[in-house]
Amino acid sequence: MDLISTRPSLHPNARPSKTLVLSLQICLSVSFVFIFSMRFSAQTPNNVQPPPASTTSSYPSPPFPEAPQKTAAVAPSVGVPGIDQSQHIILPGDVLDISVFGAPDLSQKATVDSGGNIYMPLINYVHVAGLRVQDAQVAVEQAYFKIGALKFPHVGIVISSYSTGVVLLGEISKPGIYPIVGSGRLFDILAEAGGTTANSGQIVTISHKGSSELQTVFISNDPTRLVAANVPIQQADTIIVSKAGVIYVVGEVLAPNGFLMDEKGQYTVMKAVAMAHGLAKFSKASKARIVRRTPEGEQEIPIPLDKILVAQSPDIPMQSNDILFVPSSKVKIVAAKTAEIAVALATGLAYYGVYR
């Protein structure tokens, strides 16, 4: 009985001892693996050597990340903000800001000389006159590439000032001198100047340098004719936008005023009266007249307005600054006053008869 009772007490004590030893071995193994991996990862970056820097070219292979920063550092010409200069034709006297990306020592500001050339370091003179800005950039890049100065040359050109341009005068939102941009046509130049004013007419006069002949363009409201008005513009042209003519309607009309002539050759006496909302009650249409300024002085032109209104006489065209005067009729005024007096007397008599 003693042996049987002793064995169960020894057997349970043996299991915890083996389990504890096994757990300690597993923990030590995991710790060793973790420490080893940490030391390995800490030493790996020190063993990796960076690639050697290239010294064969001052300009790295494209794409070049600093190019947008270089471009943004050069501002366009003051007075003509935000224009697209890529299509501008370079002329002698233009001042160019030239940036050679990756080689700041070669970047500079150059003036196009009378021969149409600019001087650049290492490549001397490059002919750029007569070229568009984007073509001039290519010409400078090819010059650097040809002598082997740069492996991947990339040049940016911005015009900081213009030697000449198109002169805009008259009814323009922002008169001044503007370079030829876009397609080089009239509407492109007008758009760069902010368009025409509210008082602008439809006649545009263009004078070309070296020519005494004037080119007249009519800006029609008809879209089909508007295309023909978008004529090409040359450098050094002068563009004058006319002021819209004004006609005046005064006298016995319902709304006397001055009216802008926004159409060509279509303003007549009948239309002027219609814009003034018609004749007033005491008007004398048969004695209407136009007051016109001439080199000899003011001239009065009788107008048979009473016959024009009933189509018994042809309508008469009006010119800019004409004054259409419609006088009052004394007969109508006297008749109206007589009628008023008669009505007043009749009303008074009736009142007197009622209360008598």
Can you offer a commentary on this structure?
The chain has helices spanning 2-47, 67-73, 133-147, 186-192, 223-226, 269-275, 305-309, 330-354; strands at residues 95-100, 108-111, 117-120, 124-127, 155-161, 166-170, 176-178, 200-207, 214-218, 238-243, 245-251, 257-261, 288-294, 297-303, 323-326. The chain has 3 domains: 67-161, wza like fold, CATH 3.30.1950.10; 166-243, Outer membrane lipoprotein wza fold like, CATH 3.10.560.10; 245-332, Outer membrane lipoprotein wza domain like (Outer membrane lipoprotein wza fold like, Roll). It contains 8 helices and 15 strands. Residues 1-14 and 40-82 have low confidence and may be disordered. By secondary structure, the protein is of the alpha+beta class. The longest helix is centred in the first third of the chain and has 46 residues, at 2-47. The chain has a 5-stranded mixed sheet, covered by helices on one side. The chain has a 5-stranded mixed sheet with strand order 12-11-15-13-14, with helices on one face.
What's the SSE pattern? HHEEEEHEEEHEEHEEEHEEHEH
Helix content: 25-40%
Mean pLDDT: 76
Number of domains: 3
Q: Report on the biggest sheet.
A: 5 strands, mixed
Oligomer: single chain
Strand order of the largest sheet: 7-6-10-8-9
Q: Helix tally?
A: 8
Kindly state the number of beta strands: 15
Uncertain spans: 1-14, 40-82
CATH-assigned fold name of the largest domain: wza like fold
The CATH homologous superfamily name of the largest domain equals wza like domain
CATH class of the largest domain: Alpha Beta
